Each structure stands twice: as C-alpha cells, then as structure tokens.
Amino acid sequence: MEAVIDVQGVEKMYRRRVHALRGVDLRVGSGEIFGLLGPNGAGKSTLVKVLLTVIRATKCQGTLLGAKVGDKGVLRQVGYLPEHHNFPKYLTSRQLLRHFGAMSGVQRAQRNRKADELLEVVGMNDWANAKLGSYSKGMRQRVGLAQALMNDPKLVILDEPTDGVDPIGRKDIREILIRLKDEGRTIFLNSHLLSELEMVCDRVAIMVHGLVRQQGTIEELTDGQSGFAVRAMGPISDELRATISSRLSGIDAIKTNDPSEIVFATSDADAVQPAIDALRSSGVTIRQFGFRRPSLEELFVKAVQEHPDGARPGAQRKGARS
Amino acid sequence: MILMQTKALFIDAYRELNAKKLFWITMALNLVAVIIFASLGITQQGVTFWHWQFESMYFNTGLISQELFYKLQFTSWGAGFWLSWVTTILALVSTAGIIPDLISGGTIEPVLSKPIGRIRLFLTKYLTGLLFVALQILVFSLGCFVVLGIRGGAWEFGLFLALPIVLAFFSFLFSFCALVGLVTRSTIASLLLTMLFWSMIFVVNLGDNIMLQQREGWKLQLQDRQEAIEPQIRFAETRLEQWRDEGGAIPGEGDEPLPEDVTDVLEVVNPTLRQSRERAEQAEEAVETWTTWASRVFALKTILPKTQETIALLERNLISDEELSRLLGTGDNDFSPDEDMPAMADPRATKAVAESMRERSILWILGTSFVFEGVLLALCCWIFARRDF
Fold first, then answer.
1. Which of A291, A309, A311 minimizes the C-alpha distance to A301?
2. Pairing between strand A186-190 and A18-29?
3. Per the CB < 8 Å rule, is B109 touching A80?
4. According to the model, what pLDDT value does residue A322 have?
5. Starting from the edge strand earliest in sequence, which strands make up the sheet with A316-317, in order?
6. DSSP A224
7. Pick from A321, A320, A233, A314: which is nearest to A280 by CA?
8. Residue of chain B nearest A12, judged by CA positions
9. Which of A290, B45, B64, B258 is a Cys-bridge partner for B252, taking CB atoms 3.0 to 4.6 Å apart?
10. Cα(B120)–Cα(B128) distance, rounded to whole angstroms?
11. Do the chains contact at A49 and B109, CB–CB below 8 Å?
12. Is the CB of A91 less than 8 angstroms away from the CB of B12?
C-alpha cells in the first residue's frame, strides 16, 4: 500500500529541555483510517503539528503525500481539524468554509458549491448564515470538520473530531469518515475515545512519551493476546493452572489480571476442552467460556502501563528516566 | 493562488473590522469632523462657524484666501490633530489585537496548515491592519476634498496625499505594535507599550523642537549682540580720540597700565563694550551648546520613526514656502530685539525653526523611518517564521 505519511526518527525538543517527540517512526497507508492513541502529553498533537508545519521538528525524515515533510505546497491536499480550534466568531459557517477554501486554493465557484454541499453533509445547512459565536461546541465541531474537507483533501487529519459532540453527532461523524474512506481518502485520527477508534480504524498506533510503542491493525496488535477464555466462579489455584498447562501441550496461557480467568492462545475450541475437563474434575464451576480478543482500551492501557512513566501526563523532560 | 489567499485575508480583515463597532464609531466620528470642517468659513472680518462670526486680525480674507484657510485647517487640525491623534488612537485600539488574535491557540493552527508561507501570512495580516486606517483616512480626505472644492473654490487633489502620509505615520507605530503583540501575545500589552513608545517619540520630538528653538534663538541673539558691539566700538574709539586730544593718560600707553580685567583700552573708555563682548561670548557658547544638543537629538531621531515630520510633509506639499512665510509673518522688520528676552521666546526663532524643519529631506524623514519599520518587520518575520504554535 502506498504510504501517505511515512516518517522516521521525528524528534521535537522544546527549549532544549522538554523532549516531546523522541524518534517517532510512523507509516500510514493510502485509503486507510489510521488512529493515533496516547495519554495526555504523549506527543500526538505535536506530531500532527510537525506534519502540518505548525511546529518545526528538531529532527525529521520522511514524506507526507510523497513530498518532504515541511513542504507547504503539499498542504493543498491536506485537510485539518485542530483539537481546540477557535474559528473567528464574526464569520458565518458559510463564510468560514469559503474563507478556508480560498486559503487552500479552491476556485471561487467550486468553493461556493462545496461549502453548501459540506454544510448539508455535516447537518449545518440550516445554520449556514448564522455567526459561529452563536454555535454550541458540537455545532462548531461539525463546521470544523466541514472546513477540513473544503479542499477535497487526499489526507484528512482530525484531532479529537468528536470532542463535545453528542452521540447522534458522533454516529454522523463516523459515517462521514467511512464515506470519506470509501471515496479513497486517507484519514488520520487523534482521539481519546478508544471505542470509537476501534469502530472505524483500520490501523492504530499507540504513542507513549514521544515514542510510538505499537502500530498495526487491531488484529496484529492483539495477535498472541486473543484466544479462548475460561472464567471460573472463584480464583484458580496455581497448582491447577500448572496441571492444565501440562495437559495442553503447545498452547500457551495468556497472562491476565483476573485470578479467576485463564486465557489460551488458540482459536481452536476443541484444543481447550481438556482444560475444561481438568477444571470440572477439580470441582471448579465454570461460569463463562468463549473466544476473547482484547479491546483497544486494554491494549492501550497495557502499552501505557508497560512504560514506567506512561500514565503520567506531560512530555518527557530531558534527563528524566525513560 | 497567492492572489486568492491575499484577497481572502483582506476580506476576512474587512469582516473583522465590520464586526467591530469601533470601526463604525470611528467612521461616524470622521464624518462629524468633516461636517465641522464644512461649517468653518472665513470672511473679511474673521472666522465663521455655522452662523456665528468671530472677528480675527490673523484669519480674514484680507490676509489669507479661502483656499489657503481650508488647506491650513486641513493640515493643522485635520491631519495634524484629527488623523494623527484621534483616528490613530482609535485605529491602534482596533488593530492592536490583529497579531495576538492571529497567533492565539486554536486560530493559528488551521491557518498555518494551509499552503501559505509564514512570512507572507504575517505580512498580509500586517497589511490588513493598515486597511482600517486607510479606509478612515480616505473617507475623511474625500469629505474635506469636497468641502474645499465647494466652499474654498479649489479642487485640491493634494489633499489625498493624506492617505499615504498618514498611513506611513500609522505604519511606523503599527510595526512596533505588531512586534510587541507577537512577542507578548497580548493585545493590552501591545496597545499600552505602543502608546508608551509613541509618547517617547513625542518627548523626543518635543526635545528636538526645544533644542532647535534654543539654537536658532541663540543664533539670533548672537547676531544681535555682535551687531550691538560695532556701534559701541565706534563710540569708544571716538571717545579715545577725545581723551588723546585732551591730553589725558591713556591706559596701556606709556606708564599707565591697562587694568587686568579688560581686553583693550576701548573697554576702559567704554565700560558697556566689555559687557556687550561678554554677552556675545555667552551667546556664542550657548549656540555651541545648543547646536551640540540639537545634533544629539537629531542623531537619536534618525534611528526613530519621524512621526512629526511625516505628518508635516502634508503641510509642505499643500502650503508653499511663500504662504507659510506670510502666515508666520515676516516679523524681521517689525521686531525689535529685547536684551532680556529669552532666546526661545524670540518670534524670529519660531520662523527659523519652521524653515529648518522644512529643510529636512524627505529621504531622511521617510527613508530612515521606513528603515526602522523594515527592521521591526524583519524581526517580526524572523520570530513568526521560527516560532512553534
């Protein structure tokens, strides 16, 4: 798959003290929905801003839509919705869309048509002539999304697009994202709402303290962590676990935090039956059995916890232990 | 695309101005000022305002024409006060937020993510700030042009020079305002510091005027005092001859010693000559001192924007040297110098200062001011291009 974003070793140091990005390697393929996850201060927005020339990287190699990162011309094909945007309140949404369309080099007739079309798409056509100052946060977010699409971008970068949007609005936005993907556009999402990312993303990357810790499809990331889970009524003793392991040769048990659960790294239900027999013969009551794949949230929490300071907000300061 | 983006930024700036009530308040005030301008008139007896008449020995059609009267009003209070003070202050209040607003979080990111270079973005935004003043000056100048045409009988297109001149004047201050706004990100700080900077320039201008007035005043005093010495020398020489004829002892000749505190025998014969020579020496020293100070202030002014001289360019273009001379009064023939009068109070000095100001070259006035503005803008561009938002 052709790479839309392909960067290596992206570093950003603020005032020679705060190490916001510490060598990020990232590859986003054409036509996919890519999600970037990470705790507060992980460097997600910094990375996006580096790609969009809002921030100058300390070190950066790679390309954006085939052009060197930092090339202004390529931004003509990129749409962007920042996280805490503050669009001029004296503009109506139609004026805002036309303004940003012009700033992206869209011809007048096209931007007039496109503005009306997009306002319809984001459900804001009834508010087209009302000033942004009178909008709710969710409405501003919808208009912001429309703004990011004014130039028919090949790559759409959205930073927390559903922030402040009600459930119906979120569903609408998800549908828009899927439609954009179907049109062949690439979507890069920054979001904290992991369940939403899980619903739409083809691939994700987890970023902790300025480094991408994992990236791939959700299946790839959960590889080796999904399997059949057996859940008992009470804790399963270590002796019993050892007995079960000896009976299931060649199938590894996946470590979980739940003492009443055993997860086997296999997708073959028959292969797990001896374990169930062993449990039952030991008098253990089984309350649940089924195939289990870790959620994105679990993956995320695990990745963050694996890093010593992962859960702590803020970028890495120089001299601090990584 | 460059043209499209520039147009979009200007339209956006216009909408922003349109949304600010202060823009329309200033516009309305400008129209009121034009109405006041139109209400002024000049007759043989003096000045009129609506139906009131004020007798004046300086302003009447016997001394100045209607055309000159209106041009004078336009340059003195129209441009010299209204545009360069009232409109400028209101414009600064309205535009001080342009750069801080541009770089505020949430606003700058979507703009910078567009295919527009940072320097071009900054400079275009800077120019949109000047749009406010340009529109205000244009309305005021157009109104005054019509008034001068109808009431003064002269369609003086030179009035429109107010547009580039006042705009240049405002841009000197606005460049400073933009720099402070960029560094501090605060509208209030940029407004207050610009006002402070403007006050500093005002003080320097005031100092320049005082130094020039002192220098020219003392030059005239030196001239007067040197002229006063000649008749006293002649008087002393006549008296000395009389002494010789009467056979009296002449100090410094023969055995008669010359007193220590005199320069020559003439001062013995005419004691006031000594005083006059001392007064001339004092004046010479004062000329030297004030010339040095005037040069220092001039040097300081060279690196600062020339706000006062820039606005005065309008007067230079609209009022000829001859008309100015008539307005200031020839004075030389009517004036009799008073020995005790302070040098600064000499009315001839005022005229000499006005002439000295007019002699300052346009290259120095505008050239160095634009260099100042250019340096500030270059600094702004450098900061803006390198900053992370």
1. A311
2. unpaired
3. yes
4. 39
5. A67-68, A59-64, A3-14, A18-29, A316-317
6. T
7. A233
8. B388
9. B258
10. 12
11. yes
12. yes
Q: Considering only CB atoms, which chain B residues are within 8 Å of A53?
A: 112-113
Residues paired with A155 in a beta bridge: A78, A186
Write the CA distances from B13 to B20, B128, B172, B174, integer angstroms. 11, 6, 20, 16
The two tokens of residue B351 are: 């005229």
Average pLDDT score, chain B: 89
Nearest CB to A54; choose among B16, B115, B389:
B389
SS3 A188: strand
For residue A80, what is the nearest residue in chain B, using CA coordinates?
A: B110
Rounded to whole angstroms, the Cα distance separating B362 from A231 reads 91
Quote the tokens at residue B62: 């016997």
Phi, psi of A59 (to 5 degrees): -150, 135
Instruction: Please report, as a single letter, which amino acid is at residue A182.
Output: D
Rounded CA-CA distance A260/A257 in Å is 9
Chain A residues with CB under 8 Å of a chain B CB are: 14, 49, 52-56, 72-76, 78, 80-82, 84-88, 90-91, 95, 99-100, 102-105, 147
Give the C-alpha separation, A16 to B191, whole Å: 32
| H helix intervals, chain A | 44-51, 93-103, 108-121, 137-148, 167-182, 194-200, 218-222, 238-247, 273-281, 296-306
- Mean pLDDT, range A144-170, rounded to an integer: 93
The identity of residue A95, as a single letter, is Q
Average pLDDT on B370-389 reads 96
The three-point CA angle B25-B28-B31 to 5° equals 155
Does ipTM come in above 0.90?
Answer: no
- When pLDDT is averaged across residues A175-196 and rounded to a whole number, the result is 91
Q: Which of B283, B17, B36 is nearest to B144 (CA)?
A: B36
Rounded Cα gap, residues B352 and B367, in angstroms: 24
* Pure H helices in chain B: 2-19, 21-39, 66-73, 88-95, 98-102, 108-112, 118-151, 162-184, 187-246, 265-269, 271-303, 307-318, 321-328, 347-359, 362, 368-386
Place of tokens 């940003």: A100
* B260 or A145, greater pLDDT: A145
Tell me the C-alpha distance between A35 and A44, whole Å.
10
Alpha-carbon distance B33 to nearest alpha carbon in chain A (angstroms): 29
- Least CB–CB distance from A103: residue in B108, B109, B111: B111
Report chain B residues whose CB lies below 8 A from the CB of A52: 109, 112-113
What distance lies between CA B70 and its chain's CA centroid?
20
Report d(CA A126, CA A119) in Å as an integer. Answer: 8
Banded pLDDT at B168 (limits 50, 70, 90): very high
Helix (H, G, I), strand (E, B) or coil at B333: coil
Q: What is the pTM of this model?
A: 0.84
Chain B: give the shortest CA distance to residue A222, in Å.
35
Say whether A72 and B116 touch across the interface (CB within 8 A): yes
